[in-house]
């Protein structure tokens, strides 16, 4: 497994094209000499090409927020894995809770996307999962996490060095400004790791999987997440919209 932590910025649909370009330039300047971790920026689909041009020559990597499972054909409004790879994307976020909620992405759709991405060996999927508040309150978190993992990944063959990132994102912490307690994240990551070990075996899991946390991480609370055992990185939403804040998060988690 890669030892460097990975920090992924999910810009969502928060910025205009010109705002995204301006942020990309700031990221490029801020991270010029940075080499302690892997940093991935995921802008809105329409901003990917421009972002790719701006980030050229830097160590910052490019990711998409979504992809379709077919390679081409009559799928209005969708984007293929190959097109993303062609413009320089190396990562893609899949199964984000906002897409599950607003676009009604279901288990079958997410599984098809993960399968297409893994089969292509062109992109690294960032598979998001996490429980909602009611599930957590009723002590169903562990079950929900294992269920979501199985729904997304069962039957998928992993070849060679193909990487898969699992992003644990408790829905009740996203966008609230309050992250969950680090030990709770550590516990959830352990559950995820055990389930992955059951599905793929320990060797594959340690070589091909990374588990990261997402949900209201900011420069103030990131410290608590730095030394956790099963923490391979972070998915950052709100705090990635300001270059300085995001830089502070990255610096702290990669200390
Ligand atoms: C996210 O939605 O992936 C996320 C981590 O958002 P935020 O950091 O704003 O909670």
From TrEMBL:
It comes from the Bacteria. Its main location: cytoplasm. GO terms for cellular component: cytosol. Pathway: Carbohydrate biosynthesis; gluconeogenesis; Carbohydrate degradation; glycolysis; D-glyceraldehyde 3-phosphate from glycerone phosphate: step 1/1. Gene3D superfamilies: Aldolase class I. Pfam families: TIM. One of its GO terms (molecular function) is triose-phosphate isomerase activity. Coiled coil: none annotated. It is found in: Cytoplasm. NCBIfam families: tim. Homodimer. This is Triosephosphate isomerase. It comes from Candidatus Falkowbacteria bacterium RIFCSPLOWO2_02_FULL_45_21.
């Amino acid at each position: 497994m890669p030892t460097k932590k990975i920090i992924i910025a999910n810009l969502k649909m928060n910025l205009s094209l010109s705002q995204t370009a301006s942020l990309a330039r700031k990221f490029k300047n801020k991270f010029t000499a940075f080499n302690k971790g892997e940093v991935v920026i995921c802008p809105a689909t329409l901003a990917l090409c421009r972002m790719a041009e701006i980030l050229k020559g830097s160590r910052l990597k490019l990711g998409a927020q979504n992809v379709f499972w077919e390679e081409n054909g009559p799928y209005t409004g969708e984007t293929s894995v190959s097109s993303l790879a062609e413009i320089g994307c190396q990562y893609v976020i899949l199964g984000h809770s906002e897409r599950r909620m607003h676009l009604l992405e279901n288990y079958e759709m997410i599984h098809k996307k993960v399968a297409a991405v893994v089969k292509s060996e062109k992109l690294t999927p960032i598979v998001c999962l996490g429980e909602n508040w009611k599930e957590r309150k009723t002590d169903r978190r562990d079950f929900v996490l294992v269920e979501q993992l199985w729904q997304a990944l069962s039957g998928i063959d992993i070849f060679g060095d193909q990487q898969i990132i699992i992003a644990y994102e408790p829905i009740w912490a996203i966008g609230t400004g309050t992250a969950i307690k680090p030990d709770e994240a550590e516990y959830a990551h352990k559950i995820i790791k055990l389930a992955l070990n059951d599905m793929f075996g320990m060797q594959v899991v340690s070589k091909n999987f990374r588990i990261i946390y997402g949900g209201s991480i900011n420069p103030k609370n990131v410290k608590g997440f730095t030394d956790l055992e099963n923490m391979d990185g972070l998915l950052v939403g709100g705090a990635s919209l300001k270059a300085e804040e995001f830089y502070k998060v990255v610096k702290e988690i990669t200390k």
